[in-house]
């Protein structure tokens, strides 16, 4: 009986750990899907599916005019995040393709929510967004399928 209880508790802890792990796919408020995953020793974010309501399919707001024709789908928008534990990453950079601006960033996972904060100089001067896990499997765009 004791072994059965311990096994059930371990299984429950494993499900909780998986649900709070920040790695994987997340849906941002406008409906696009982003993938959080390892890239070298850091954690990065890529756009893997664009919302049907996306105003642009290319990086039209990039301050570098030579990059404005690159596809948003598959674009790495977050890089250099240091994983502090399974649910927290800090010290990264976030590129916002809706404005062409790059910010410092941090993120934390709580259950099926990813709290993302982009800021200039310090977290106090920034903006937060909550992303959620996709309810159904994500059909990734062709360029993003390698993530």
Structure characteristics:
globular, eight-stranded antiparallel beta sheet, Lipocalin, disordered N terminus
Task: Provide an overview of this structure.
The chain is mostly beta strands. It has one domain: Lipocalin (Beta Barrel). Helices cover 13% and strands 42% of the residues. The chain contains one helix and eight strands. An eight-stranded antiparallel sheet has the order 1-2-3-4-5-6-7-8, with no helix packed on it. It starts with a helix and ends in a 15-residue tail after the last strand.
Rough shape? globular
The order of strands across the largest sheet is: 1-2-3-4-5-6-7-8
Q: Report the count of strand segments.
A: 8
Indicate the mean pLDDT: 84
Strand count, sense and barrel status of the largest sheet are: 8 strands, antiparallel
Q: Percent helix among the residues? A: 10-25%
C-alpha-based Rg, rounded: 17 Å
- Derived from helix and strand composition plus strand pairing, the structural class reads mainly beta
SSE inventory with pairings:
Elements lengths: L1 H19 L3 E4 L5 E7 L2 E8 L26 E10 L2 E9 L4 E10 L2 E7 L6 E7 L15
Antiparallel strand pairs: 1-2, 2-3, 3-4, 4-5, 5-6, 6-7, 7-8
Q: In short, what is this structure?
A:
The protein is mainly beta. Helix content is 13%, strand content 42%.
């Amino acid at each position: 009986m004791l072994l059965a209880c311990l096994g059930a508790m371990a299984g429950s802890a494993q499900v909780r750990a998986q649900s709070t792990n920040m790695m994987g796919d997340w849906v941002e408020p406008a409906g696009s899907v982003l993938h959080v995953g390892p890239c070298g020793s850091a954690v990065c974010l890529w756009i893997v599916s664009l919302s049907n309501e996306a105003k642009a399919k290319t990086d039209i707001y990039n301050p570098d005019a030579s990059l404005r024709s690159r596809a948003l789908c598959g674009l790495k928008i977050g890089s250099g995040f240091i994983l502090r534990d399974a649910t927290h990453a800090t010290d990264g950079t976030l590129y916002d393709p809706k404005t062409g601006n790059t910010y410092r960033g941090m993120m934390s996972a709580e259950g099926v929510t990813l709290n993302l904060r982009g800021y200039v100089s310090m977290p106090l001067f920034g903006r937060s967004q909550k992303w959620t896990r996709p309810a159904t499997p994500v059909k990734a765009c062709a360029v993003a399928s390698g993530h």
